[in-house]
Amino acid sequence: MIIKGNRQNGQPVLIKNNIVSSSERIPLYTNEFSESWIQKIIHENAAILPISDIESGFAPAISIGREVKTNAGFIDNLLISAEGYITIVETKLWRNPQARREVVGQILDYAKELSKWTFTDLDDAVRHVNQNSEGLISMIRNQAGNAETDEHTLIDNISRNLKRGRFLLLIVGDGIRESVEEMVEYLSQSPQLHFTLALVELQVYKLSGEVDSLLIIPQIITRTREITRAIVRIEGDYATGLKVNIDTDLGVEPVQTQKQSYGRTTLTAQDYFEQLGQNTDQSIVDFVKKMIADSEQIGLLIAWNTGSLGLQFPDPSGSGINLSILTVNKRGQIQLGYAEKQLIALNIPLAINYTFCADTAQMFAGIEPNKAKMGSWNKNSTILDLITQYDRFMLRIEKYLEEVEMM
Hints:
The protein is an alpha+beta fold. The chain folds into 2 domains: 14-263, no CATH class; 269-406, no CATH class. It is 34% helix and 25% strand. The protein contains 13 helices and 17 strands.
């Protein structure tokens, strides 16, 4: 048995006008709550789910329906990002021990069913469940606040993700008292899908003195006998070898199924490299992978986004603020990261950033500092241009990081 000490959850308190209000934990498995209540909370407040901590490309999520009908049953909550990445949610209160394994099989059945759908199938289902004529594209545009979303690109993204089974599957409830390793036998029955499965617990508290107010905390702590957060990633097929990776707070545990296992990755990263390769060629993909490895060696973090990857530098003082250094989009274009707000928050002189911008801009033909937005370039450059200046460029990044650390 693996033991990580006697860790216990603390009780949150609310301090308002210097008055402290205590809280009382309300287990979801009591009769005060129902799975329908959880579905409603998620539908109205999709941000309550820690999606960005699991698969950043799937966030922020937009709720597009409750009890969405499929041939495999009704999906409790269906969410989608503004880029067309789909999240399937199954809510579960673990009052019935026999239902624990059934819920895993159920959410996998939903994923299998959706992988057979076309964009039109999904659009029709969304119109039906919401009982209005507003289609999926309109819902995404309205809720994401981006009326200029390219319709054809969004439809292509959604269609591709449906076809490949590229989903985020969330089982949300009050914890799973079952070894996550035992779930692999169920997960390995779907090798044709490329999905991430996460188990999330919602902790609910009542605050004393606050009428009709609840504090809800998405719990992402892994324990040995009660798994409240675990991420299982599966990719491959039976011909090439099924690859399973279990990621918990106890560490990343590769599981050998058939031929091989693989290191930690994300669906967003896989999608990024796939589309980068389609837009450029394999040599560009290989170069970007080398740049990522070199960047991590000098202390940079990799932020995976739906349209790009970002190189970021974590504040050495431990504030949690990350300075944006560089972004590389799926078309092989690069742009200096805009870090003015982060630098101001860290009380670091902006002149350091402006000089960094000017020095890097002169390495590329046609690039100069943006006069209207200091600290950024006037336009994108390309990976092809970066290749010829790579060593010089990386040395300048290292100097910039040293200057930041000295502040």
